[in-house]
Amino acid sequence: DLLIKKTVVGYDGLPATFVFTIEEKTEGDGYSNVASVYYTGDKDNSTLVTMIPAGIKVRVTEVYAGGRYTADTDPQEVVITADTVNPVSVSFKNTYDKEGPHPGGSGIENKFTYSAENGGWGLDTTPNTTAETVDNG
To answer: Hey, how many other C-beta atoms are within 10 angstroms of the C-beta on 1?
Structure first.
């Protein structure tokens, strides 16, 4: 498992979504995934990415930092272990950009689950609680 931790400096009081790519950097089956952290003003927020093959090296890169934050663009590389109690972790820190253009925006993460009862894979839908709204007026 991989724990992606998010810290925000200068939080403006509105929820924000931060999006990360996770790409395998060792020779293997080519693991690739996208994850997001929904930040609500707690000191630190995080997301746990599970089902990553143990033993592979991955690069985690922040690719979207919401409309109001400066992205932490330094990628981090870690080797995934089989320890699910103490997962490998990476940390990213963002700073509020009070001078930026502040466009609205959001992140996306698709989740599919298999249901024999429904006869296959289906997209899990949840209420859109991660959309950012910004008053540019």
So the answer is: 18
**DSSP of 17-54, one letter per residue?**
EEEEEEEE-SSSS--EEEEEEEE-SSSEEEEEE--PPT
Cα torsion 68, 1, 110, 30 to 10°: value is: 100
User: In whole angstroms, what is the distance from residue 29 CA to residue 46 CA?
Assistant: 26
Q: d(Cα 108, Cα 36) in Å, to the nearest integer? A: 7
Closest CA to 88 of 96, 78, 98: 78
For residue 115, which of 107, 102, 104, 124 has the smallest C-alpha distance?
124
Q: Collect the ranges in the chain with pLDDT lower than 70.
A: 28-29, 42, 100-112, 123-137
Residue 55 CA to residue 78 CA, distance in Å, equals 10
State the Cα–Cα distance between residues 62 and 56, nearest whole angstrom. 19
Which residues are bridge partners to 39 per DSSP? 16
- DSSP-derived letter for residue 132 is B
pLDDT tens-place string over residues 71-83: 898 999 999 999 8
pTM of the model: 0.74
